[in-house]
Write a structure and sequence with these properties.
The chain has 162 residues and is an alpha+beta fold. Helix content is 56%, strand content 18%.
């Protein structure tokens, strides 16, 4: 019987305790959550400013190879960022031109994003040159000129002359 009394009291206090915890959560945001929200905002800003994006699996690249690719892309007005898939999905949902374009199953492996500003053919050539030199990154898909493109289409575009 004592356990039943305890359960009855918890059942009566349940909503009250829940409201108290919800109120305390609304007053403060954990530093970790605030940091993640800032990252999502930064990614969304980069997506908004980009003319196109390419998503690739960077697994297998060394830190030095990633930095080399970043420098090469910077030379053609593009940037490479390694992000968590969950934060990337949230960011894509915040940008109107990319909202709803990418199915969730595309984010199965670690993802690096190439934010393309300017000539996207030149940026694609840099990514594919890195792929040829290192065997990585493996292009997953891209969004160029408002269209979702698979790996084969990205590779084909990278072979076009400037």
């Amino acid at each position: 019987m004592p356990n039943e009394d305890k359960k009855a009291r918890l059942a009566e206090d349940g909503p009250l305790r829940q409201n108290v915890s919800e109120a305390s959560e609304s007053r403060r945001v954990s530093p970790n959550r605030a940091k993640k929200e800032a990252i999502v905002a930064q990614i969304a800003d980069k997506l908004s400013a980009s003319e196109g994006v390419v998503f690739a699996n960077y697994q297998g690249l060394t830190h030095r190879q990633i930095e080399t690719l970043k420098k090469q892309l910077k030379g053609v007005g593009s940037t490479l960022a390694v992000t968590k898939n969950s934060l990337l999905k949230l960011s894509l949902g915040k940008v109107e031109k990319f909202k709803g374009m990418v199915p969730d199953d595309k984010f199965a492996d670690p993802t690096a994003v190439v934010f393309i500003a300017g000539d996207y053919i030149e940026a694609l050539k840099k990514v594919m040159k890195a792929n040829k030199d290192f065997g990585f990154p493996k292009v997953k898909f891209g969004i160029l000129e408002g269209s979702l493109m698979d790996e084969a289409q990205i590779v084909k575009l990278s072979t076009l002359p400037n």
